[in-house]
Amino acid sequence: MPTEVILPRVDMDMTEGMIAAWHVDEGDEVREGMLIFEIETSKATMEIDAPASGIIRQINAPVGESVPVGRAVAWIYAAGEALVDHRERGGAAVAGGASMHPEEATQGQTQTKTPQTYATEAYEHAAPSDQNPHAADDVASTDGPEPLRATPAARRLAREHELRLVEIAGSGPHGRVAAQDVLRAAMLEEIPGAASNSAPHTRLHSITLRKGSGDPLVLLHGFAAESNSWRPFSQAVARLGGTEAGMLAVDLPAHGKSPAEAAGSLEEMVAALEQTLLDAGIERCHLVGHSFGGALALATSAQASRLEVRSLALLAPAGLGPESNGAFLRGLTDATRRSSLVPWLRQLFADPARLDEGFVATAWQQLESPEVRERLAMVADTFFPDGTQMLDLRHLLNDLTMPVRVLWGQQDRILPVRHADGLPGHIAVHRFTGVGHLPYVEAEAEVARVVVQNMASAMAVNTSARVAIR
Amino acid sequence: MQEIVEALPTRPAMALRGVLFRHDAATLREALRKMILVRRFEESAEQAYMRGLIHGTMHLSIGQEASAIGATLPLTDDDYITSTHRGHGHCIGKGADPKRMFAEFFGKETGYCRGRGGSMHIADVSRGNLGANGIVGGGMPIAVGAALSIKRQRKDSVVMCFFGDGANNEGAFHESLNFASIWKLPVIFVCENNRYGMSMSVERSTAVAHIAQRALAYDMPGVTVDGNSFVEVLNASEEAVAHARKGNGPTLLECETYRLRGHSKSDRNRYRTREEIDAWSARDPIVRFENELLQCGLLDAASIATLREEVEAQIEAGLEFAQNSPSPARAELTRYVYASTTGSEQ
Amino acid sequence: MTADVLEHTHTVQAEKTHDAVRELTYAQAIQEAMAIAMERDERVFLMGEDIGVYGGAFQVTGDLYQRFGPERVMDTPISELGGAGVAVGAAMTGSRPIYEFQFSDFATLAMEQIVNQAAKMRFMLGGEASVPLVMRFPAGSGTGAAAQHSQSLEAWFAHVPGLKVVQPSTPHDAKGLLLAALEDPDPVMIFEHKLLYKSKGPVPEGYYTVPIGKAAVRRVGRDVTIVATSIMAIRSLEAAAQLEQEGVDAEVIDLRSIRPIDREAIIESIRKTSRLICVYEGVQQLGIGAEIAAIACESEAFDYLDAPVIRLGGADCPLPYNPELEKAAVPQIDDIVAAARRIVGRRG
Fold this sequence. Notes:
heterotrimer; A: alpha/beta; Dihydrolipoamide Transferase; Rossmann fold; 3 domains; 7-stranded mixed β-sheet; 14 helices; 31% helix; globular; B: alpha/beta; 6-stranded parallel β-sheet
């Protein structure tokens, strides 16, 4: 059976650690005792040696990512040994039923240590495990489906909440449904659908721009815009061919077809966005946010608890400074006719000639309705009263560990490009000359490329590659 | 018929009158009555059993009446006895009422053990009968414990501990005699040697010819008597009881007797001969005692006949009482397990 | 060994409301109980091997012989069957004996009197007799006494209707349970773990009892219920302290009474935590853990179980002599910690 390589506790009060550097690659041959990675601790960097000889595989902790103490960051296999699926299920799984008890490792074949014997059988991992003598018994016969496994507590809760156990995914061994699984399902059930009005579980409207595989790209538009504005950009991304990810654009609260609720605070908006994505079955995604949507994207990356943001690209985001073009915002929300809207729309572009009829038509379609304008005015008043940005999100950038890029047009007349100055060193900043507030329009192909590269960098670190930071 | 090896002196016959005249006629009449009662009780129980009225089995002491009644005569209600699975005679000797004994055999609520014990566990604790015991030798240490209580309570009561030849090879026998001796406790160990354990003869099972010889190993007096002679048994018992009451410690009293019936109701009697059984029948202790009483003029034939009638009536009444008594309620199954149920009910 | 045992629920019924509480060893607490009992009640006396001048194999009787004399503190020959029977007979006839077996393993020699006589006398006699007998047994392993002097046999006796079986884990309970046993009209067997004799804890002066049949919640917790007996209750508390550091909040129940068993305490705790670990020194198979687990499954606690029950009991072998093997043969603190981690679904 493969030997676990865990992130060990090296300090007394350590609960998690960060790998500072890998000294081996996926598939390398390692010798017991040789250096395989370094841990960054608050005190000093610690060198960690291989616990066994063999081939190191399934390295899954990228450099810079925080890992809880005791979690397996890789496995060492014997030559020719088949890979074991260690996919975690709700934290209950251990490779092959091995416990962390030190004596177990030496006790091997003998069964004298009965305190362990009975317990491990109940805690077998669902994955086919060659060293568990009862594995054959536990895999269901190939005829007929596996019987439903659920703990008594889960069954009781399912009864109480009038849920069907078969519809609930189980986190225990053999897919056993546990109480927490039922409770989670119950909570999701309680969340109203799109028609409901109760924040903070508001579901937002979204458009699937492209179906794909892996973690999708989620696009968040800016103030007074809506999801359709991403269409050309999404096609540019598709044309690049550098990613198979699906693309989803979400209407912000009070924008597009999303309900007006949850527009009262950034927290509400983050919660609504998170819930919307989870409901769509998305737990990991790449985020791109423009302007106000950028602020939402940034806040979500920092604060979402059940959503994992793999990479973040901020296009002229709000929230990085107090200045904004208040006149522009007022102009947008006050314009009662198309003709009084156009001059303000021109402000979005470095080159006003770039403003085409299609753009105007789309914008007017939204802003034509007084109710919409009123709603938007309220949002503006909440987040940009008197043209001052109330959101101060700069500090959130410091702790982000996923790849983050900030893209800004040098000629941005809505949110000043200088807000991109002085950002933390690990964040890449791209400044485009001749580009105004809409880099994804005015530098569509370049922005698409940067976004795709950003997404790729998130994926790359995950699968292997020594990233040596010296 | 076997030779009885003379290892210890027994009472010569001429002392018989002396013993008898130590007691008044009423007492001796009562003794005979009890012996007849035991006999008739056993025979009636046997009949009931054979008619299928009694559950389980029973161990009859027919032929051993002199031993039981002779030994228990000197006892009062303040004295204790422990008995064996073949203990109906001891129970009657200690004053048990046959009707409650019958009721117990029939498993009725009115029995001595409320139907929970059966033949092997008849007891009457309030009158000093600590119970018959189903484990061979089981009652012996308990008897010694009762004697310890007596000594601690500074009473002059005694404990009479009945057991058979089979028990004398159990560890409990040896441990009990040792305890009684080292602590000088008022116990009279009465061994009813009826020559057989179940099927194993005492000659084959026991290293010494007379069980009373073992008394030497425990530094106490050991006496062997003819267990079918009421007078001999009584005489030896009185001496042992007096010895104990004075605080001089235990005695081992061996009564050589014979059980005319098998060990239990399922005994096929394959281990002994018809001749042997017949020979001992001729030494019937009741017949012998009756003759002795007649010879000494202490009783006449008419009174003996009356006595027998009284016994018959008592037996009949007892059987009827038992048959008409209620059985225990099923709901009371676990009622007498504990004297007090503390904490959660089991 | 025991350090500070926090007693969240102990019942201390002191005769005087202001009884002083001081630290005694487990052995001293038992001695004190016997002394108090003998002073109050002349029916109480002690029997056992080497309990007189020698002071008892584990120095529990100590100087009681000097204080109470040979009629109250009676040395017996090496004669467990006879001695136990004498104690039964004495108990049936107005005495209150406390019989000390030198090692719990020697109960085997007295099985006849304990199981066939003491346990059944009351029932067989239709309630006409009772056997108020107390028997004390130094039990358990860890002293290198090997296979015949290290057993934990309480489960055998807990299987017999008519007996009562208790296992105090603290000096406070050792005294209180012994005094309770003396008040009890039924035969009570007290199994004392040898390694606990020197353990220390708070013990009130004067007379008090700990109720037979009531468990004690030694530590309140949310995440897992640990039901333990005797020294395992102490080890479970140590394990719980470690687990607290890892964010696992264990509830530790010291069963104290094996027969009768406190079903309610077990059920109530499982309803709260949904997870059960049984820790006991007796051989795991068919030991007290089986009864505790069965209670969980057959009661309303069943609907609250969210993980399979874990039993940690003695290994399936006689107790070995070698000290490492001896330790490996019974649950240790590490085993309890590991089991708790497993049952809450964590690793490491």
